[in-house]
Amino acid sequence: MAKRPTIHDVAAAAGVSRGTVSRVLNDDRYVSPAAHAAVRRAIAETGYIVNRNARSLVTQRTGSVVMVLSEPHEKVFEDPNYSTTIRTAIRRLGERDVSLVIMLAGDDGDRERVVRYVRGGHADGVLLMSTHAGDPMVDELESMRIPAVACGAVVGKENVIPYAAADDREGARQMTRHLVEQGRRKIATITGPMDTPGGIQRLEGFADVLGRKASRKLIEHGDWTQLSGESAMARLLERTPDLDAVFVASDLMAAGALSTLRAAGRRVPDDVAVGGFDDSSVAATTHPPLTTIRQPLAEVAEETVRLLLALIDGGGPVDPVILPTRLIVRESA
Amino acid sequence: MAKRPTIHDVAAAAGVSRGTVSRVLNDDRYVSPAAHAAVRRAIAETGYIVNRNARSLVTQRTGSVVMVLSEPHEKVFEDPNYSTTIRTAIRRLGERDVSLVIMLAGDDGDRERVVRYVRGGHADGVLLMSTHAGDPMVDELESMRIPAVACGAVVGKENVIPYAAADDREGARQMTRHLVEQGRRKIATITGPMDTPGGIQRLEGFADVLGRKASRKLIEHGDWTQLSGESAMARLLERTPDLDAVFVASDLMAAGALSTLRAAGRRVPDDVAVGGFDDSSVAATTHPPLTTIRQPLAEVAEETVRLLLALIDGGGPVDPVILPTRLIVRESA
DNA sequence: TCTGCTTCTGTGAACGTGCACAGTAGCGCA
DNA sequence: TGCGCTACTGTGCACGTTCACAGAAGCAGA
């Protein structure tokens, strides 16, 4: 690789000093039109590109942001939540010439690596994805005072770490209301893990609508996977064979619930109505297609990035953003 | 943020010089056990972490690798090919303390940004994903002589850019043979885009088995999306209503083909057998479940990363790696 | 003419490393 | 004693920037 031109080369080619070139680069004021033009021309001629390492060394800014994925699950990226957020983040950050580093934080070793990375000053900000309640990594990041935002609230840190999220609670209410309006009387629910905001708030929304009719017997917990949806549905059927509807907190778990119901000989939606959540791609391909709640994933991602950039740019504290969901009626309910 | 300790601080705390600390850090020989211990202790006490920017400045190594995603498609990350590769890359690179930056290269602006990034010396290597034939970006990267490998061959650059890939051609043969063995006589195919290795080679494998029976009439092209599978299937049915099997070059397109077949009143597999490719998650959830070809995605990803690291570590040229596929028989064929 | 202000430019120092080099101490051997 | 070798240590410089500062040039006003 031929030696790359430095700011010195550009200065020489333009017949000015390093300082002037630097000023043009960081578009400072106080540069004469003539000098400005000469520098621009010299940059083009030499093919000069700033060395970010050298710049970072003095500015203490890296021009990159790290996204931390706490989900240890194998298929994280296939989850549209992640997929959309990653893509949006890369795009929006890229527009500002900020690059995105992705790190996994599935186990303690990973988390330690993340902390070391951030403590090493290699990122200007942190974008937290699906961080678990009580994760010590969050405390460490917090203590470093590095700009951090979460995509979806961090349970227990809602007032400390700003976030953008879909209105899980209201979405759950929308679905539950829909089931009630369809004349369903015995409505069960399969929740997500209770240390995730989606797990907690979708259950709360469910309970908001049903009140005391949301008895313990009608609640089962899953872990977002299809398999967990299958087994949770089986447990519900065993305990309450006469249920006539179930609100499942994710489409993937709902797909699992559908197969259990089919295996048990229940017709959907005739015998049992099924409502999902996410409006992910599986929702359209199940049989019957899932009635579900659409999350404004792209908007949530956009907002998350916007918050982070605002934080990095040194604006003061920023407020969480919560975006509305929408009921999508298909055939399962 | 409190000022971070530098190598000077560590040297002072350990009562040695910068040079000795540096030697301990890069575990050079020639440092006495006493000095080594003192430095280790000082590092722990001060909480010292090397500043990679400063290090990069002198070593010309960044400790990071950039993955370039050329697929402009919206859902890239949901594709298991990407998902698995990204996850594997992050994990394997992370083990060596190399971080992964992800960049999109969907349009010209993106590609220019990638070139600028690499030319700026911000990455030690490039990991190409689904690069299109004739992409000028590849030529530019090539001219910079930066270590680069592809996950899946780059069409037209097979001898220039090392890669790891599944044996697409043999996989297509396996499926086509299977269809023949099932007694199918009129076998059609829906291929991927003909500027991708999967598009080309899966068609070649199909033709390998059928020979002259693989007539033009029985070939349609899709673009990997479900929708394109639907319409390609429709065109095939119109042209050759009596076909009794179709090999679809991806599961997602196969899912599309299935809905078209169902809408046309054909029973699968009774009237028409359908074979997919990828063994992605949709394969198991279609009706009927797809008979498909499993690609060793994880192994391909592992090998891709291994090749890149070998290239970066300065070993000479490396050879492409091609890994075997496997027929997964379900119900659609 | 002097002073003060604005606009513009160049220079030296600093950021935190790694590396080449010089140098020291100890030891064995002729 | 002198020489060469090994094991170890410290120092100066370079990497490519930005930033603070010093100054120059031009102009207006007293």
Describe this structure in words.
The structure is a homodimer of 333-residue chains. Chain A is α/β, with parallel strands linked by helices. Helices cover 45% and strands 15% of the residues of chain A. Chain A has 13 helices and twelve strands. Chain A has helices at residues 7-14, 18-25, 33-46, 52-59, 80-95, 108-119, 136-144, 168-181, 197-210, 226-239, 251-263, 281-285, 297-312; strands at 64-69, 99-104, 125-129, 148-151, 163-166, 187-191, 219-221, 245-248, 273-275, 292-294, 321-323, 326-328. In chain A, the strands form three sheets. Chain A has a six-stranded parallel beta sheet, sandwiched between helices. In chain A, helix 6 packs parallel to helix 7 (136-144), helix 8 (168-181) packs parallel to helix 9 (197-210) and helix 10 crosses helix 11 (251-263). The radius of gyration of chain A is 25 Å and the shape is elongated. The N and C termini of chain A lie far apart (62 Å). The mean pLDDT of chain A is 91. At the A-B interface, helix 4, helix 5, strand 2, helix 6 and helix 12 of A face helix 4, helix 5, strand 2, helix 6 and helix 12 of B. Strand 2 of chain A pairs antiparallel with strand 2 of chain B, so a sheet runs across the interface. The structure holds a DNA duplex (30 and 30 nucleotides).
Summarize the helices and strands and which ones pair or pack.
The structure is a homodimer.
Chain A: H1 7-14, H2 18-25, H3 33-46, H4 52-59, E1 64-69, H5 80-95, E2 99-104, H6 108-119, E3 125-129, H7 136-144, E4 148-151, E5 163-166, H8 168-181, E6 187-191, H9 197-210, E7 219-221, H10 226-239, E8 245-248, H11 251-263, E9 273-275, H12 281-285, E10 292-294, H13 297-312, E11 321-323, E12 326-328
Parallel strand pairs in A: 1-2, 1-3, 3-4, 4-5, 5-11, 6-7, 6-8, 8-9
Antiparallel strand pairs in A: 10-12
Helix pairs in contact in A: 1-2, 1-3, 5-13, 6-7, 8-9, 10-11
The first copy, chain A, binds a DNA duplex (30 and 30 nucleotides) through helix 2 and helix 4.
